[in-house]
Amino acid sequence: MSIANYKSAAEIDPLNQLSSIKANSSQTEFRTNDEFMQIDNFLPDSLLCSIQKILPQLEPYIHRSFIPKHKKGGSISRFDLDLNAPIFSSIYTSASLRSFLSSVVGKSLIYCPENDPHAYALYSYAREGDHIGFHYDKSYYRGSRYTCLIGIVDESCCALEYELFSKDDCKETVMHSTKISPGSLVFFNGDNIRHRVTPAKPRDKRTVLTLEYLTDTSISNFGHFYGQLKDAFAYFGVGNTLARLLKKAQ
Ligand SMILES: [Fe+2]
Question: What is the pTM of this model?
């Protein structure tokens, strides 16, 4: 998607009611909690319902991945979302959302490059044992990476467990656990917050929209290479990643 498309998508701003949310209190919560915050009932109900209705049409695009002792679950990359459900790019490029998150962080957040499949993606847990082990959301860009998670479906026992101050030598690490209920937003500094999602039980269903914002899009060659490798094996598939790279090279 080109920047021009970004702008036109952003004109249909699905989150233009954000002015009702108090940025000041969110800023305080975010900055005193090692750059982590949660806002329940963030997404307007009508938008949440629209998204939930289109989920069955997206099931053929879920790519399942499994890394022993670390990760098991399904993902749909931004590329498949762009082709099949443009509402997600509208949410990602929402001027209201980006402005709100930037004010919370206190820095101007920018979009990921167009070739980054993680800019926005859906994560789907629908089989017993789907989970992800403890990790940081390290992006390999030179600046900071901020992760925004929005709950879409949660009929599961899965919890997001996260540690605050794990990189702060002056403070004790504090562990928390939360559910990402439909419509709620979780926002954190991916380089700071070590986190995991606990395993799903039989018949559990959980879908989360992830959005990634940056402070600097420059990246080293190694970072680019490692990022592609991670996408291929841990998220969106070797075939999909190769096809995209070959298309770009033509
Ligand atoms: Fe993560």
Answer: 0.85
